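Reopening this ticket.

The earlier resolution said the output was attached, but the attachment link was broken on my side. Pasting everything inline this time so it's all in one place.
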Amino acid sequence: MAEVFDRVAMLDNFPLIDDQRHIEGPAVAVDIDTHVDYNYADRNAYETQWAEETVVMERLADVLKQGEKFINMVYTYRSCSKALPQVKTADQANKTEIYEGSYAVLEPEVKKLKDFMYFQRDAIKLFCDQIKKLTVIKKQKDKEKEKMIISESLVWYLIRLLDLFALLDALKNMKACLNNDFSFYRRALGILRGRSVGADDQTQENNTLYLFLANQNSITTNLKTDLQNVEMYDDIFAVVVNQCADYLEAERYMLPIEKHCLLRVMPYCLFLMDNEKDEKKNIFKRKDLALNRVAKLFKRNPVVPLYGDMQITLEALIKRSPHFDEKVWGTSSVSEDAKVAFEYEIVNILDQTRAAHNDFIARFANTINEIKAAQRTAKVLKDALTLAECQEITATVLRGLQLLADWSAKVLQQSAWKFARPNNDSSIESQVEYERVVKFNYKSEERYALVEFIAMIKGLAALFLRNDSLLAPIIRRTIHDDLQEFVQVTLRELIRAMSKSARNARKNQIRSELLQLRTIAADWAGGIEPVDPALYGKKAEKDEKVQIPSRTTGPSHTQLVLIRNLVFGLIDKGEDKDWTSGQLKDLQVFYNKSFFYKYLLNITETVTASTDLADLWYREFYLELSKRLQFPIEMSLPWILTDHILESHNPAMFDFVLYPLDLYNDAANRALRSLKQRFLYDEVEAEVNLCFDQLLFKISEQIYAHFKVHASSLLLDKPYKAQLEIVYAPGRFHVPKSRFDVIMREKHIQLLGRSVDLNQLISQRMNTYLRQNIDYAINRFEASDLTSIIELDQQLMALRLVHRLLSKYFVLDPFDTTLAEVNESTSLVSFHSRIVLHIIFELMYDFAPNFNYNSITKRFIRAPVTFTEPVPRDAMPKSNPTFLFGNKALNGAYANSAELLKKFIGMPHIFSMLRLISKAGLPLVIGEVLRNLELKFSNVLSPYVRELMSGMPASSKHPIYDYGSEGGYGSYQLKLQAIATYPDLKSEVFQNFREVGNSIVLMNLFDLASTQLDSARFIQAAPFLGVVPEDFALGSDQANGDLSASSPLYANLQRLAATLEDKPDLARSPAILRDIVTNAWRADKYYRPSYPHVSMFKSVLQRINHMLAPVRDEWMGTDTGYIPIDSTTEFYRLWSALQFVVCTPPDEVAPPAPGAPPVAPVPAEPSVHELFGDGLFWAGSTIIHFLGQQQRFETFDFCYYILNVDEAAAAPSAKPQMREFFKMVTLVRDTNQTIFAMLNTYAPISPAPVTPLHPPATDQELTFVTIREGARAAPTSSASSSSFSAAPAFDIPPPPPPSSDQDDWGAPPPPPPPDFDDMPPPPPPPM
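Inline output:
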């Protein structure tokens, strides 16, 4: 058995890993009640004159128990007649069936009402009989001139029975539905009277019940009538009133319901004592009643809770007394009313209550720690603490129980005060009266105070219940030892004193009662009563210390009552001459201390009863008053308090958010255990489900918004944030203070007997919010053009950081998995996604046709005029500040920053696109762009080029130099008139060339951005791969062996794995170590760059070169073996014509009128360059480059020729139109040179070999330059023309030219890097 106890004791130190704080009410576990009240069934075991009184108390206890059932029945009664069908006409066919059904439904309910009527009749009779017996005893004692002694225990039962009558009468008056249902029942019974058996007897009974229900205060009236037949009943009632006053003044009560019971019974007793027919029974003239102190108690507590949502005003009952004298009673002034209101409102005592709570929590925690420390060090558990320490612990527990009861009483009294004084402000729109007493009757600070009171009550109660098993043995031992100390030590001296005067009848009687007390309570050492000389009035020869056995066993309920009655009788019966001052004081100290024993012996029951705040939820009185089935949760006080915490965003109160929900636990517990009404529990459960859903929604919303603000604030540019804080109020862009970490760790909160994992539920909400937010961000992107790609990138970066922050508290789905699910890219065989598809859509239908490229800024801007239909997009989703960047301040900051990038598309947008589509989606985007280019070449540009070729002049020979620049310009303007006036030139030809050029530029920017991202990743990974610049410059050809085998990442992990495998005691999972080494080798292969560098733009240019294959022969013209000068069908000559049209300045507006101020000439319309940008030149130059016509184009271009003539002329042209033309030509030439330089770098074209031309020896001898056949085939060498050496340099240097083995333009693109599963296994570890 000792081993069993040791193992049970070990459970106290068993570690439970749980980092959550206790921020909820107590959770009562399944336990055994060790202090059972058997209702005096064991009274025969004790021989005392008070044993007969226990028979009366037993009967009264049974009546009280039965009366409690009727209280619950009447309070929870709901009308049945409202739900029954009504007979509309007298000749209705199913009238009889309706009445029969109504009778069947109402008969059980009416039977309950009849039982109620009979119960109150029998209870009144029993009460009056008991009062009559007491009056008989009083008469006899008066005759004998002795003092009548009524035990306080019996008086307490009389107080409770009077309170029962008052409660039942008030509840019956409140429930009008009782009479309504009975009236409906009588109507149905009257129709069916001929069929019922015993109708006459039932009619008489029903009439009696009707009068009982219809008359107000019928129970009180019946009681008062019966009491008139009892002589001197008012003397007994005076004893009751005085005891109530004594208890209240001495605070001799524990539970709030006991305090309120004492306050309710006093006016009820006074009303029953006052008899209008007998002037002698005028309560205001009685000398045995101190009405002054009663009036003080009433004025200090004018309003008292009655039951549930009902309250009573004490003075109202007194004022109904027939002999009420206002002069004797006194009146309340306005100042006194204000003082009482101040005392009722707990917000005024919050500070001192909080201080008392914190002080006691510190003392109690220190006490618990000392107990545990003592038990750990003690060899024998019962010897761990001394008696003095146990008494100190018991005193601390008693102080805590009194604090709990006092705080709960104040909360309930404030609730009653609010019910008695609703907010009758006429400006408040309320549907029912209940709103005025609950919803609109608490100010914000009062709600905070009420929440904090509930938190202190429930928190301390939970602390008591968690340590009940630790405290109960100590308390039982203390009570046992104190009782034995009193019986075996204190009483011993009293018995010896009384035994000396045994001939005195009074002292002999006292000695007899002392011996009875000694026999009832003594627990002798060894179980044998010692021979004590004190019993004979003698002193012991030797002063031996009494050996008191220390046991963890308290007295039984009957034993405790009898002990207290005996002590009370000794105190009340004895006279001053019978006792010394010290002896009387010892009896009084023990009597007062023993009052709390019954509460200390059952801490669980005491704490549960003290902290029952279910009255804050129950509203049956107001439901009856407003004729409603139930009120919405907006009128429910628990939810009002909870919602106030959530909506006020007060971080200091957030720890208390779960405490108001414990009121639902109290309400449900009362519905099941006390009221025993399933429908009430169902209503509580339904409200809890709704409120908890709302709570979970609001908490999750606030937590998500907080972390969204946190992430957005961290990602906001720091210098930008500093400037914003200078302009705006400081702190707007910082993370607000919060206490969410406490609520986020709650994994097992108790609600209606269910353990709820709040952390898991919030985790599900966080996953949902992340999905919704990602969907919201993608929806905004799908409703916008490509410039919003940066906003999408920023939002997804913020969401990724939010996910990382939330993952510290919650178990969330991987962010990449969530993003793939919402982005609809979860397929293993498809790289389609919503983002990728919208990017492709925007590139095809908006970016390529409607944006102009600027080679200087490397940006695309929206064209001033569009030649396409408006792009159809989804509607912009409704604005949600939380789903953007958290709050309005951060949304504005990010919006201002993003607005700067909304006017163009440049490298920031390209980087964002690459981050969003990743390398997996990039081939799809490039493939769709190239597929679109291929369609443009074959289906659009080819027909238009053919058509325009037919409109070229018959002779395109350059005009002679003597014409000058103006002459040459005019000559070409006339020759190219047909081209310039072609109807579809701008809307189709230039438009499609722009789309081609924009696509090519986009591919180049993709390549540059991808190279930068790869370089940044490689720089970050290089230290782990062991790559240094010297080794990297050697390349893969000169590297010795496998570089991955010597990388720090792989080598160090391999050595660690080998070391741990040599020590099996350290390596618990060798297989995992091998997997780590293998994955390290794969990661090294993945992040190590490949040799040589593979250019994406080069592969794109290779595809474009293949796209030109169908039109190559047509656009290269007829091969005559020499370069035609006058006319040609080659593409470059057509492009020269188109370029001339581009460079031609637009017409100007008409000059100002005579006398008007001069203004600068303004073009009538935008120029072609302004309409289409530099993408036009990228398209033409790329085609010319791959057709091998670059040198011919630069030699024979019309615009270049005119510009050369003007530069060579002695007097250049000064006409404004010519100057604009030359300015444009210069810009176009520089742009073309830049384009050709880049194309020759990525895709060099080798010029055809020629035969040198020698001067003829004679006039008849001619040697022509012969052109090698196949010269126009795709080049294979990497030689570049020297004419591009003066091209402007790039911001980012292009990659080095490829080696000779990669210049085969007919070869397919290089294969992708190998997948993890395709890689060969890592090399074996070194031996």
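Reporter confirms the inline version is readable. The first helix runs from residue 2 to 12. The longest strand covers residues 303-307.
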